[in-house]
Fold this sequence. Notes:
Blueprint: E1 9-13, H1 18-21, H2 25-39, E2 44-54, E3 58-62, H3 89-101, E4 105-109, H4 116-125, E5 133-139, H5 144-154, E6 162-168, H6 180-185, H7 197-212, H8 216-224, H9 231-234, H10 242-250, E7 261-269, E8 273-280, H11 287-296
Parallel strand pairs: 1-6, 2-5, 2-6, 3-4
Antiparallel strand pairs: 1-8, 7-8
Helix pairs in contact: 2-4, 5-10, 8-10
The protein binds fe (ii) ion (FE2).
Keywords: Dioxygenase, Metal-binding, Oxidoreductase, Zinc
Cofactor: Zn(2+)
Protein name: Extradiol ring-cleavage dioxygenase, class III enzyme, subunit B
Amino acid sequence: MPANNLTPVHFFSHGSTMMLGEESTSADYWKKCGDEALAHGIKGVVMMGAHWDADADRVEVAMNPTPNKSPVAYVHPSKYVDYVLQPDLATGERCIQLLRAAGFAAEGNTTFDWIHDTYLVLIRMFPGGCPPTTLISMNARFDPHYHVKIGAALRQLRAEGYLLIGSGGAVHNLYRNVYWPMVRHADNFAQPTPPEPASLDFRQAVEDVFRNNSGPELRRAVTRLMKHPQYREAQGTDDHFMAIMFVAGAAGDEEDRGDFGRLEAETWELTNMCNSQFTIGVWPDQRGQTAAVESAA
Ligand SMILES: [Fe+2]
């Protein structure tokens, strides 16, 4: 295992809006990760979601000091309306500078309102209050290598106590979801039939990539997933697969070699949407424990 002082990196599949209001093992894991982050005194969260992209060759950083929350369906307003967001403008400015130094056309966005891809996860991770958080946009061309490079440019923040999170989806094709149990019965977890083969197969491919690759190989493997024969069936659009690139960039350096991804929770929704939750790396004070567990296994 690498002997470094870096924070772990999470790839979370946020799923449907109902993941905010309903109980699930994924939500339990998000809470566990939030508790651990607070126990380790993180300086803040740096997050790329799946619902915000910048045009041309640009990447944006959320710099709105008082963002609103876009409303969500199938969730009682009491679950999110009063939750106070805490944009971290100082770290946002720092991210802009780091991205520019890496060659990106990075700009602050002072009017962006936050969307459920990010605040859904923050509420479940940190129900007692939002830590200082910086949101990084995607780029609308959805070039996987571009998004890996964003993660690589911000990776050094892990050494300073920031928690880097990508919020997207392992299998996320809205055109293949089965909605009637949610619409008729408010049941997002119903599985009236098994998932279709493409959903099952691609979900396995994503797990295989995380489990069996680390360091630069992880970066190559996640970008290669976009050439998987069932990629387009599993991802109807590219937006929910960019955060996985960001995560691989942030946790796929030579120094990360040996830190393999772990599938820590998984929740199927709407028959064909697979919300897999992965973590790469461990907290510095847990490295010895992890090595001991692995050698005993
Ligand atoms: Fe989403």
